[in-house]
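To the team - 6-phosphogluconic acid complex, inputs and output below.
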Amino acid sequence: EHAEIGLIGLGTMGRNLALNIAENGYRIAVFNRTAQRTDQFVAKAGDLAERLVPSRTIEEFVASIKPPRAIILMVPAGEAVDAQIQVLRPLLDPEDLIIDAGNANYHDTNRRAATALSGGPHFMGIGVSGGEQGARFGPSIMAGGDRSAFARVQPLLEAISAKFENVPCAAWLGEAGAGHLVKTVHNGIEYADMQMIAEVYGIMRDGLKLDNSAVADVFDGWNQGVLQSYLIEISAEVSRTRDPDTGRPMLDVILDRAGQKGTGRWTAIEALMLGTPAGTIEAAVGARGMSARLEERKAGEAVFGSAPRPIAQGLLGPEVLEPALLAGKILCYAQGFDLISAAARQYGWAMPVPEIARVWRAGCIIRSALLNDMASALEEQPGRNLILAPFFADTLRRSEDGLRKTVAMATLHGLPVPALSAALSYFDIMRTGRSTANIIQGQRDFFGAHGFERTDMPGDSFHGPWAIA
Ligand code: 6PG
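Output:
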């Protein structure tokens, strides 16, 4: 009996995705470059093994799938994907479909999608979020590429995806690399969410002198309210957990150098390329980079003294940090959605923004209660900045003070808050009807005769009566 779908690449994510697919009743062909891993996987699959169709050669693998075939690639992003496509192409029919489910750079996906148009097989790039558990029990799936090809695998993708109130968190979001771009922005937002949580953690640890279990309690409390989210929930867990070997809190034994595989950075790069403001995400990427400079930071502390200073009792507390985080989050998501809209315009892709918010409501790393409200707000006012939607405008009015006070207090006490302060600056600029770009225009015209528009005579370009020094 033929398999209904195939999957190549049995790393952690690939294995879990394959089990998820099998558990949903599909027969799935599996292949891994080293056959030993395939054997081990099938041996450990228990009852699900009967729906797994293992192969030792790629030819056998392809032959084991029912045409028109659909094959999911779960190999490391980059050259491995191109290499795998090279191997598959001669073995596949034009009607077959290759689905790259890794964290690809969407420019690569654009290129692969374009190649697929010249003679097939079809190609789709899908973003899959939710880590190991998500892959196994229900990820959020951001699909992009060939829409008719998507229709073929839609029932399967919906079946294996996370559900929010019975609605599958899997959708086609646009042509070519759109799915991977949305996943990239998801990761940029993930970086910013994590960084803002790290910033308030820093304020609690170094400013308010709370111990780890007190910090855990604060996160737990927040997880019952407007900030309810997976990342707050796991932050509480991480803060509470102790090292079994030493008995010390895990947070005290973990080195303060953050890793990154690059997707958050791609979001910042895209924002700069598309000319859309994403300061909060850029700050989060920058902060990860700075965290890696351990020796330099130590040298800086030796020369200038340690920056963080305790905040006196009563000046700032968790009740102020909660609205700060809420405001920061809204402002950061506004930047992310804006970036997606800009990319949609640039490439002429569908990328329905409310649908994207819906797909993020469950399964993915940034899932949170707020995303449901975001989906509704973006639906009500298509094309408008999230912060201008009545619900979020109201929420920002109520949380603004918390953000401003938090950034001000942190700044006065040497507690770094790059992402939160970037969010606040974004907010303040977005509500400054008359910006300071008039002097920039004056400078540009002065040194380069670049011209400027006048407030009192719109449209034309003018030059200033500058006295040349
Ligand atoms: C997800 C995550 C995941 C990503 C990690 C690692 O949505 O499940 O975004 O895809 O690979 O979060 O990212 P960094 O190593 O860059 O932190």
